[in-house]
């Protein structure tokens, strides 16, 4: 390597390492595509895409993994989602960053299997590769959790 190449290589290395913290931070938010895992049966259920719209997170079912449930409807829902297709349904609404920067909360999550909505807390773990999804009534200790796996 000659002298004229060294400064260019140094600049490239600095730029590459400067981007790493930003990428790591981006992965520690709930934003992305997640594989939901049933907390009781431990089976993979769906792919849920969580997006950020002006600081408010929402999540929509993008794919159902059980081929026999592709036409499933939310027959137990009590709101506007009653008898609507589960595929494409928004199941997470109103979630915002909490006082703890690693926790998002304040919204609701719908369980299409029973039609009930719960308060929700989302917490990325394992460097953002997993997402603890806690649905609860009242206090967070009165609920159940699922661990979702990041797909992208």
Can you give a write-up of this model?
The protein has 152 residues and is mainly beta. It has one domain (30-150): Lipocalin (Beta Barrel), CATH 2.40.128. Helices cover 14% and strands 43% of the residues. It contains one helix and eight strands. An eight-stranded antiparallel barrel has the order 1-2-3-4-5-6-7-8. A hairpin with a 6-residue loop joins strand 4 (90-97) and strand 5. The longest helix has 22 residues, at 5-26. The protein is globular, with a radius of gyration of 19 Å. 21% of the residues are buried.
What order do the helices and strands come in, and which of them pair?
Blueprint: H1 5-26, E1 32-37, E2 44-53, E3 56-64, E4 90-97, E5 104-111, E6 116-125, E7 130-136, E8 143-150
Tell me the Rg in angstroms.
19 Å
Rough outline: globular
| Beta strand count | 8
Q: What is the count of DSSP helices, taking H or I runs of 4+ residues?
A: 1
Short description:
The protein has 152 residues and is mainly β.
From the structure above, extract its key features.
mainly beta, Lipocalin, 8-stranded antiparallel barrel, 1 helix
